[in-house]
Write a structure and sequence with these properties.
The chain is of the alpha/beta class and about 575 residues long. The chain is built from 18 helices and 27 strands. It folds into 3 domains: about 160 residues, Rossmann fold, CATH 3.40.50; about 200 residues, Rossmann fold; about 120 residues, 2-Layer Sandwich (GMP Synthetase, Chain A, domain 3), CATH 3.30.300.30. Strands 2-1-11-10-12-13-14-15-16 form a 9-stranded mixed β-sheet, sandwiched between helices. A 5-stranded parallel β-sheet has the order 4-3-5-6-7. Strands 17, 18, 20, 21 and 22 form a 5-stranded antiparallel β-sheet that branches. The C terminus is likely disordered.
Length: about 575
């Protein structure tokens, strides 16, 4: 396969350098847009730099020194972005926290990472009051809202403090010196296979990943709708830092439910997401097509295919204009990450005139390791390794080495030694390369099922097939019973799609026995083309969706132990 040339980039040494350069390049262009009181409010690149400088100066006025921590806890919003940039560009260490964690989990992170300042939305100001005495390292609690009854300071007052210091001649921000080796963030992983760890990423790590990813993906000058939580490195890098590097306008979505409306309001051209999000979006499109009749749709797809093949005309956006108009009419590119996407969804969206690519990464690699390209892709693959990264397969496991690989886990030398060996990051993922250099993922090393006859079964492969059934919402495949390895077999926990049962049978015309019967037939049907040792031998039903990380990956470790696998119906 012939590979297109890489996109051109400009060098950045660290995140301070990134801020300075994007301000010079895109000064009057809108950088960020967030809704406040129902109205989108904008900041240009120049205004963003001013806000960052003011807040960074305020940090200095509050006595923060280089390498001190600043924790951030809120939904996606302008204040989150300003806080992150103000911390890292002034030599402080940003500690992004998942807004969906419990109070106990938040306090654990604060006590473990010991930031001196926490900037958060009002909800968390109120929630954390009773825990303040248990957080001795936390000196300041700054509210993103104006109300400061329970907080030490409001965000606007912090900006005012910095602004006044600057007018008085403060040069603290200008005097900061950074290098690529300086620690930029401490990032707590989502922990899909067990307890989370705190990844340490330097300025050089993140800058290298921004530049390398930009050589494979070009979104410059567009409008990006930021949907995934910014505390996660996938969205923070791809939906924030990379977007700024390429001169995009980043608009923060209000919620997952409001995505269609937000796409229309912002005229977004690009959106990052996870497979579950795109699969739901595609099912919604399919439902609309069925209501209006599939005959015209098939005819339009045929015309588009012929035009592309014979004349190299891509007329899909015109043919399927009503679908595009529902998403604002400007949306061109979907980028998927976090888990493997169903190739049928990728192909289906592309046939409708949307560009669709997926990639692969992990927090420990800042995070992107490989990604497909708009004009060079394979939907079953996670793409080509980024420039500057070495990626190899050893005993089926994917190993990565390069400038974007973390320095280690914070205060966890044992875990660091286990993951980093001679500079190689052991990802814990099994995979392989094809003849064109495209990387494929088989599954997690910790999740692989080893049958009594020594065969390896990758749960993700089986789950992907099960989830194609219209009767199955989601599934989790595991090897049980765990107490007797000599009897291990492929088992599954299945969440039925109640909407399909309601549509096909009527809401009151089926019971649990009928659901079990239908799901049993579907499991056999979906597994029939698999080797016998890969087929699901037993399954249980579960009435609720699985507990997931903020990037919508199932927390497998909660369900794979036998004690957790009981029927939950």
């Amino acid at each position: 396969m012939k590979k297109p040339p890489l996109y051109s980039i400009y060098p950045i040494k660290d995140l301070r350098d990134l801020l300075i350069q994007v301000t010079d390049r895109f000064g009057d262009r809108v950088a960020l847009r967030s809704k406040k009181n129902g109205v989108y409010q904008s900041l240009t690149y120049s205004q963003l730099c001013e806000r960052v400088t003011e807040l960074a100066t305020a940090f200095s006025e509050l006595g923060l020194k280089k390498r001190d921590g600043v924790a951030i806890l809120s939904e996606n919003r302008t204040e989150w972005a300003v806080t992150y940039l103000a911390a890292v560009t002034s030599g402080l260490v940003a500690v992004p926290i998942d807004k969906d964690l419990t109070d106990r989990e938040i306090c654990h992170i604060l006590n473990f990472s010991k930031p001196r300042v926490l900037i958060c939305s009002k909800e968390y100001v109120d929630r954390l009051q009773e825990y303040r005495k248990t957080l001795p390292s936390l000196e300041r609690l700054i509210s993103m809202e104006e109300e400061t009854k329970e907080a030490d300071l409001s965000f606007s007052d912090a900006l005012k403090t910095g602004r006044e210091a600057l007018l008085a001649g403060s040069q603290s921000f200008q005097e900061v010196e950074l290098s690529g080796e300086d620690l930029a963030i401490i990032l707590f992983t989502s922990g899909t296979t067990g307890s989370s760890k705190a990844v340490m990423l330097t300025h050089g790590n993140i800058a290298a990943n921004v530049m390398a990813t930009s050589q494979h993906i070009s979104i410059g000058g567009g409008v990006l709708l930021s949907v995934l939580p910014l505390h996660h490195t996938y969205e923070c890098m791809g939906g924030f830092l990379l977007a700024l590097y390429q001169g995009c306008t980043v608009c923060h979505a209000e919620s997952l439910r409001r995505i269609p409306e937000n796409l229309q309001e912002t005229g977004a051209t690009v959106m990052l997401g996870v497979p579950l999000l795109f699969e739901k979006l595609y099912r919604r499109i399919e439902s609309g097509i069925k209501e209006k009749g599939e005959g015209k749709f098939r005819l339009a797809k045929g015309i588009a295919a012929i035009s592309q093949r014979l004349f190299r005309w891509n007329i899909r956006r015109r043919l399927f204009k009503p679908i595009h108009d529902k998403f604002g009419g400007q949306l061109r590119l979907f980028i998927s990450g976090g888990a493997a996407v169903n190739p049928r969804v990728a192909k289906g969206l592309r046939e409708l005139g949307f560009d669709f690519i997926q990639g692969y990464g992990m927090s420990e690699a800042s995070p992107i390791i490989a990604v497909n390209r708009v004009n060079c892709f394979k939907d079953a693959s996670v793409g080509l390794p980024l420039p500057g990264l070495e990626v190899k397969i050893v005993d089926q496991e994917i190993l990565v080495r390069g400038p974007s690989v973390m320095t280690g886990y914070y205060l966890n030398e044992a875990a660091t030694r286990e993951s980093l060996k001679e500079g190689w990051l052991h990802t814990g993922d099994f995979g392989y390369f094809d003849e064109d250099g495209f990387l494929y993922i088989n599954g997690r090393k910790k999740s692989v099922i080893v049958t009594p006859n020594g065969k390896n079964v990758y749960p993700e492969e089986v789950e992907a097939l099960l989830n194609e059934s219209p009767y199955i919402l989601e599934s989790l495949v595991w090897g049980g019973p765990e107490k007797d390895p000599s009897q291990v077999e492929v088992q599954a926990i299945v969440v039925p799609r109640t909407e399909t049962f309601d549509e096909e049978l009527g809401p009151s015309n089926y019971d649990q026995a009928k659901v079990h019967e239908v799901i049993g037939k579907e499991v056999k049907k979906q597994c029939k083309d698999l080797a016998r040792y890969k087929r699901v031998k037993k399954f249980r039903l579960r009435s609720e969706e699985f507990n997931k990380t903020t990037t919508r990956k199932i927390k497998r470790y909660l369900y794979t132990a036998k004690s957790h696998a009981a029927d939950n119906t």
